[in-house]
Amino acid sequence: MARPRSDERRSAILAAAIRVIAAEGPSAATAAIAKEAGVSNGSLFTYFGTKADLLNQLYLDIKKEMGAVILEGLSTESDLRSQMLHVWRHWLRWAMSCSEKRRVLAHLNVSDDITPETRKLGHQAMVGIEALLERSRQSGALRNAPLIFVAALVNSIADTTIDFMIRDPANAGTHCDVGFEAAWKVLS
Fold first, then answer.
1. Structure confidence at residue 6 (pLDDT)
2. Which of 167, 168, 136, 165 is nearest to 153 (CA)?
3. Residues 166, 99: contact at Cβ < 8 Å?
4. pLDDT of residue 5
5. Nearest 5 degrees, angle CA 131-CA 132-CA 133?
6. Please, are residues 71 and 87 in contact by the beta-carbon 8 Å criterion?
7. pLDDT of residue 4
8. If you compute the radius of gyration of the chain from its CA atoms, what whole number of angstroms results?
9. By CB neighbour count within 10 A (0-12 exposed, 13-18 middle, 19+ buried), where does 56 fall?
10. What is the distance in angstroms between the CA of the first residue and the CA of the last residue of the chain?
11. Long-range contacts of 41-50 (CB under 8 A, 24+ apart)
12. 58 neighbors 18 (Cβ within 8 angstroms)
């Protein structure tokens, strides 16, 4: 008789996948992930039917976490700039404190293993942020550009800012502020 699935074991597999994929990339062997999680390779496949299933779940979990952290405590009563600054600071704080998840998400964003359905679900985790971007750019130079293009520009500024914050932690606050001003100018 098959052993019942454990939420604890499933979580251990996902946590191990983050560590292993952050170090080795998405081509990391499932055996390495299972070993890191302290389970057999067969047990891993009890929880995730295929490696692609594991990668898709990992992508979705990280996107949901990131979206929730970014929007946490956001006051919709404040002006757009203040709301964007809140989102920016929470985003960068998450990225700084979750560097392995950030690295894994970067790998999975370009992975062919992530299905269109999973990407759509991941996108839904960011709908609040997308709406704020849309409102922020309405009177800016990019108001007629595709929102996905505008989001990619802001994301590039954020990635550059995060990289500088990591390399120069003594000036992380300054880098965060300068990066925000650049992003805000792109939007408004």
1. 84
2. 136
3. yes
4. 76
5. 90
6. yes
7. 62
8. 18
9. buried
10. 61
11. 43/9, 43/13, 44/13, 46/2, 46/3, 46/5, 47/5, 47/9, 47/10, 47/13, 48/13
12. yes
Residue 174's pLDDT is: 98
User: What is residue 3's predicted lDDT score, i.e. its pLDDT?
Assistant: 59
Distance of alpha carbon 104 from its chain centroid, rounded?
A: 8
Tokens encoding 93: 């704080």
Spatial separation of the C-alpha atoms in residues 100 and 29, rounded to whole Å: 17
Nearest Cα neighbor of 123 from 131, 29, 137 is 131
- What are the DSSP calls for 79-135, one per residue? -HHHHHHHHHHHHHHHHHHTHHHHHHHHHHHT-TTS-HHHHHHHHHTTHHHHHHHHH
Structure tokens at 25: 């990339």
Residue 170: both structure tokens together: 């003594």
pLDDT along the chain (188 residues), means of 10: 75 97 96 96 94 98 95 92 96 95 96 96 91 92 94 95 96 98 95
Give residue-wise pLDDT tens across range 20-63: 999 999 999 999 999 999 999 999 999 999 999 999 999 999 99
